[in-house]
Amino acid sequence: MKKLFYLLLALPLAFAACEPEPAPEKVDPTYAPELSLTSEATMEFAAEGGEGVITYTAKMVEVTREAAEPKVEATCEADWVTDLTVAENITFTVLANEADARETKVVVTYGDKSFEVAVKQAAKQNDQPEPENGVKLEASYLQGDYYGDEYSPGVGNYYVYLSDLGFDEEGYASAGGTYYCLDLYGPLFDGEGDITLPVGTYTFDANDTMVEWTIGAAYSGYFAFDENGNSLTGEYGLPITDATLVVTESGMTLTATIDGVEHTVTFEGVADITDVRTDTGEVIEVTANYAYANYYGDQYTPGTADNFYFFLSDLGVDENGWELPNATYYRFDLYTEIIDSTNGIYIPEGTYTYDWFDSMQVGTFSDINSAYYVMDDSGWDYIDYSSLGEGTITFTESGVRAEVLANGATHIITYEGDITFTDVSSSGGGEGETLSTLTEDKVLDIEGATVILEYYGDYYYNGTDNWVVYLYEDMETLNGAYLMFEILCDPAADNIAGTYAADSWGNCDTAYTYLPGYVSGDDMWGSWYVDMLGGDINEDLAPIFDGDFTIDIDADGVYTFTFDCLDDVGYAITGSIKATMSSEAATLSAKSAKRAKANNFAKRVNSEKLSSKAVAKGATLSVR
Q1: The pTM is what?
Q2: Which single residue of 9, 20, 164, 191 has CA 20 to 30 Å from 78?
Q3: Which residues on adjacent β-strands are paired with residue 401?
Q4: 519-535-299 Cα angle (round to 5)
C-alpha cells in the first residue's frame, strides 16, 4: 500500500464536509520552492529493522513567477517501511526482515522539487547456528600468508583462512561464503618451495604473546555472508574466544568457540600459503658521521629505566636541532639502566635489542618510536620513512654498531667517535612535574582567527573519529595565540561541533573528549596553548589539562571555540575564538609545518604498530 504523509495535518472529516475548500494560499509571486537532502542518500538496516531519520531543507527562493505555498510530502511503496512521518525531519520505521535482503526508496517532494533516499535491509540471518546444535563445516580452501618473524622475533607467523568458497583473483570474499581467519604462531619455515603449516597442535592465546604453537586472539575471527553478499557477522566479523587447531600431514581440524557456539571445521588437502615476508635479503652498510641523543631520565619509566632518543646520521642537524636537507637518520628509542647523570650523561655500554611489545625494559629499543627516514631537498618532508624492525644496537667504548631491519633490508650502521647529548630530563612527563609557563589566568577573546583540521579516522580503534584542530590568531605573521586540540568525535555526526571534556585518564575511548597536553620526544602532543612571535614560542606555553571547550559552526562555516579550561598548574584558559577554515595550509611557518609533519608521521608510526597486520591481513572482508 502506498503511504502518503504531509507536513500539516488535514482537518477532521466532519469539518471538511461542512466547510468549503479554502483557496490555495498565495505567497509572494516572486518565490518558488527549493528542496535539498541533508542526510545520506542510502540508508542500510540490519535484518532486525530499526528507526530511520531523513533530514532536509525546504525553502522558498526568489523567482519571477507566481507559486502557491507547497507542502513537504514523503511516500514509500514498500509495506515494510511504516510510520512515515513528515515534520522537521522525516522519520520512519523499518520492520524486521524474515526473508532475503530487500530494498526500496523514500520519495520526498516539495512543489515541483524532489529527491529519493534508498532504503536497504539485510536478509534474516537464517544460517547463523543454533547454540545447542553447534556448527560443522568441511572447508574446501585453506589460503593465507606467511610473515616470517616480522611480528614475532624467532617465531613463524602464518595467517590463514579456512573457507568453504575461498576468494576470487582480486582477494574478495564470495557471496554465501564462510571464513575462519587464524593468526597462527609456530616454528619458522626453513625449507624450499611451497610453504606449509608446521604439523602440531595450536591453542588459543587470549593474551597474544605470539609464542610457538598459539592462535593469536586479536587478529583471528569468523566471517559469513548471505547469498547477496551481505555480511551476516558485521564489518569486523565475530571474535573467536577459544580454539584448538590440530594440523597433520594430510589436513587439519579446528574446534572454536564463537559467540557461545562451538564450531568444528575440517580440511583435507594442501594449503595455499603466500610468502609475504618483507625482508628482501638486501644488506645496506652505512657509516654514520654524527651521533647524538636526547636524555629523558626516568620520567617515562619512573625508578625502572632511563630513556634516550638516540640518533645516527650522515649529516646531523642544524644549530636549532632540525633535520637537514637530503640527510639520513636512524632513531632508536633506548631504555637503559638508570645512570648517575651528576657526573655527565652517557649511554651504558652493551647490546640493546628490538622490542615489539614496547615494554620499555632495560636493554631494549622500542618498536613504536624507533625509525629510519630520509629528508628531501627542503629538509621539511620525508622521501623515505620506515619503522625499525628486528635487530640490535651495540655501544662500546670506541663507538656504535647497529644492525636493524628497515624497508625490507638489513641496515648495518657503524659510528666511531663521541656522542653529543642534550639533557631534557626535566622537560615534562615525570611525576609531579608541570609544563606550563603561565603565571596568571589567560583570557582569549579573538575574532578573525584561522582553523586547520587534520583527520585520522578511527585511529585508536575504538569506534571514534580522531581529529587534530589547529587555531591561529594571525596565520600571516604567526604572531599571537596558537592552540591545538586532539579530539575524539562521534563518527555518526555530520561535523565536529559539540562540547568536549578532558580525557583525564588518557583512555582515548570516549567520543567528545580531548587529550590533555603532553610531551613525547621533542614534540608537543594532545592539547596546548602557545603565545607565538613569528612562529616561535614567545612567552607563554601551557598544556590544556582540564575543563571543557565547545565548538559551534554556523551556516556560513564560521567556527566559534569557547574555552573554560585549566593548564597543568591550575591557571584558567578561558574565552572565545571565532575562526574560518584555512584555504591553504601551505601558509604555515616552517616550525608549524614541521609540527604538522611530525604529527602526521608519528601517527603513521603508531598506526603501523597497531594495524599493519590488520591492513595486510585483511581483518575486514568484503564481497565484490
Answers
A1: 0.43
A2: 9
A3: 394, 414
A4: 10
Q: What are phi and psi of 530, to 5 degrees?
A: -135, 140
> Helix, strand, or coil here: 179?
strand
Cα–Cα dist 162/271, whole Å: 10
Residue 369, amino acid: N
- Separation CA 74–CA 77 (nearest Å): 10
* Residue 135 CB contacts under 8 Å (≥ 6 apart), including other chains: 129, 261, 262, 263, 264
The C-alpha cell at 416 is: 666511531
- pLDDT single digits (tens) 332-391: 999 999 999 888 999 999 999 998 777 889 999 988 788 899 988 888 778 888 888 789
Which residues sit opposite 20 in a β-bridge?
A: none
DSSP string covering 458-508: STTSSS-EEEEEEEEEETTTTEEEEEEEEEEE-TTSSSS-EEEEE-TT---
Cβ neighbours around 547 below 10 Å, total: 17
> Which three cell numbers mark 169?
583473483
Give me the sign of the Cα torsion angle 68, 71, 72, 75: negative
Give the contacts of 45 (CB within 8 A, at least 6 positions apart).
52, 94, 119, 120, 121, 122
Asked if CATH classification 3.40.630.30 holds for the domain at 3-121, the reply, yes or no, is no
Residue closest to 284 by CA, chosen among 404, 203, 382, 389: 404
Q: What secondary structure, in 3-state letters, does 103-121 show? A: EEEEEEEECCEEEEEEEEE
How many angstroms from the chain centroid is the CA of residue 2? 43
What kind and span of H or E run contains 355?
A: strand 350-355
- pLDDT tens digits, one per residue of 481-518: 999 999 999 988 888 999 999 987 666 778 999 999 87
Record the cell numbers describing residue 469, joined without a space: 584542530
Task: Kindly report, as residue ranges, where domains of CATH 2.60.40.10 are found in the chain.
Answer: 3-121
